[in-house]
């Protein structure tokens, strides 16, 4: 019980996949060590645990996301489906093992605040990249959009104030979760504390993906024309 009394020390860590602030993260829990971990999270009332990727040398990734449990459904075979949602980002300071699962001492990450002309520039960038993200998502095929929506839910609306959340706009994390990116790239962006740099990274990724999509479409059109 005492291990979860402080959510910066000995935080239970689920080593599995990428998670992002404000984004739903449903999990299928079938390993006994994680059953124990989830049960302790529920019994202590914190209903929170960290999510990290596996790392070859360090054991777990340097950055992760705190998740909050919304619901737990247990099946006859003992496995569970845990409905969780991302709360906040953190950096791992050190990590340990306890009863078969990882725990870590962490520090939370918050975005640097901008003011004056830099804030005005950020506001413009925020609007521009949001519109670019919406355009990319609406350009996807119907079945691709349906798959994304069924797993991640609707794309959040653009916030009037880009710095209202210490972790940044919800829509930006949603788009990062659904973009076809390698986890290494996602992890690097997760650890950024500059909203401007994250937005610029999203813009670059969207430009590259859109160019590839257009090139493939041009190739298909060319083949159809030749046939």
UniProtKB/TrEMBL annotation:
PROSITE patterns: LON_N. Residues 1-210 form the Lon N-terminal domain. GO terms for molecular function: ubiquitin protein ligase activity. InterPro entries: Lon_prtase_N, Lon_prtase_N_sf, PUA-like_sf. SUPFAM superfamilies: PUA domain-like (SSF88697). It comes from the Eukaryota. This is LON peptidase N-terminal domain and RING finger protein 2-like isoform X1. Pfam families: LON_substr_bdg. It comes from Hipposideros armiger (Great Himalayan leaf-nosed bat).
């Amino acid at each position: 019980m005492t291990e979860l009394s402080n959510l910066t020390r000995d935080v239970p860590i689920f080593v599995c996949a990428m998670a992002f602030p404000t984004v739903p993260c449903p999990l299928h829990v079938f390993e006994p060590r994680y059953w124990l971990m989830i049960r302790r999270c529920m019994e202590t009332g914190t209903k929170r645990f960290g999510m990290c990727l596996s790392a070859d040398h360090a054991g777990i990734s340097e950055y992760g996301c705190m998740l909050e449990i919304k619901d737990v459904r247990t099946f006859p075979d003992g496995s569970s489906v845990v409905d969780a949602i991302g709360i906040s980002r953190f950096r791992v300071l050190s990590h340990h093992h306890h009863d078969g699962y990882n725990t870590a001492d962490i520090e939370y990450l918050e975005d640097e605040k901008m003011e004056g002309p830099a804030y005005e520039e950020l506001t413009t960038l925020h609007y521009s990249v949001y519109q670019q993200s919406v355009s990319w998502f609406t350009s996807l095929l119907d079945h691709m959009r349906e798959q994304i929506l069924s797993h991640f839910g609707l794309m959040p609306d653009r916030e009037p104030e880009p710095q209202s959340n210490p972790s940044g706009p919800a829509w930006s994390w949603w788009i990062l979760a659904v973009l076809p990116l390698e986890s290494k790239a996602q992890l690097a962006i997760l650890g950024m504390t500059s909203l401007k740099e994250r937005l610029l990274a999203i813009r670059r990724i969207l430009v590259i993906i859109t160019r590839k999509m257009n090139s493939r479409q041009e190739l298909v059109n060319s083949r159809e024309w030749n046939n």
